[in-house]
Amino acid sequence: MKKVLMIASEASHFENFHIPYIEYLLKRNVEVFTASRGVFSLEGVTHFTIPYKKKLVSPGNVGVILKLASFIRKNGFDTVYTNSTLAGFTGRMAAILSGKSSGKNSGKHSKKLVHICHGYLFDDDGSFRSKVYLFFEKLVKKHTDLLAVMNSDDLQIAKKYGLGKKIVFLNGMGLDTEKFPPVSSEEIYSFKKAKGIAFDKYVFLCVGEFSERKHQKTIIEACSLLKSDRYQVVFAGDGVLLEECKDLVRENRLDDQLLFLGHCRQTNMLYRTCDCLISSSRYEGIPFNVLEGLYCGERVIVTDVKGNNDLAREHGQEMYGFSDPKALAELMSRHIEAFSAENRNSHRENLLKSKYTINNVLKENLSLLEMERDIAEK
Q1: pLDDT of residue 109
Q2: Using an 8 Å Cβ cutoff, are 72 and 79 in contact?
Q3: H helix or E strand, kind and range, residue 92
Q4: How far apart are CA 196 and CA 234, in angstroms?
Q5: Is residue 184 classed as helix, strand or coil in its secondary structure?
Q6: How far apart are alpha carbons 98 and 110 in whole angstroms?
């Protein structure tokens, strides 16, 4: 029986992106293992918990690499799939140390190593940060049999530096549209009332972990520049910078305009309830919150950074420069000024191109990631 290992930093990564792929493999009698921080539970899958440290260069991740290498060596996987930056590097290093890579110097040809890049955390700008991250990618590139990227900027970087033996482009991992059914006006009313979301104001939504990468401070700073009070910003998410952002709201006396919901699982209701999604991110692969917002008929305002700008240009949405609160405030003002509560449509049409949905992406990705071929060859 063929055995594969999927590695991610967080268990939620499998829940959000990989279940359709895991189920595909299970149905074809492939033995699937997963490894991440936290617990992932899916019938037929064996999960291995590893104590990743958040920072890539943390000394604690050396122990993680050794522990993971031992696990890979013990189980003799046919293919190892790594995801994102932290798990991508540590997972590939562990595979190399275990002998499960096919680099030029590894002796006998071993098993396939596939890395799925959900967005490089650097640009090709020559900055110190970019040089550091690129250095780690170069360390493992000759062992990466297949590299998948999800936006045009990362594709250019991957090809320029040869970060994989074979490089392919994915239209994301696929949005599961069944998770976002239409809702009634009564459901919207009840949800707004329960969460404290305004009925008579233009409602902006920001979904994501409070972090330097997501950079929600820009949104708060933009709100401090707005002269109108006919709006509300709803933040959904938690993270290490949540309290710092709340302090910034209090300092700017914006408590009446900004609402913090914390982690919220009712994402469909959030998108259906609010009027416009804002992203303030520094880096993206292909942002799921933007895909979700567009599918639910929301307008979006995003930073002009990789991942975001591909989707914005393709769907005719608005962009502003990263960490430019003045530019964001100007875009927000236009939406607020044009808002009429009487004309708000609770049954908005899907704005997302169908090529990003799981029904259209799954079969193509299975081919690009060579899952079908590898199973057939076994």
Answers
A1: 38
A2: no
A3: helix 85-98
A4: 10
A5: coil
A6: 10
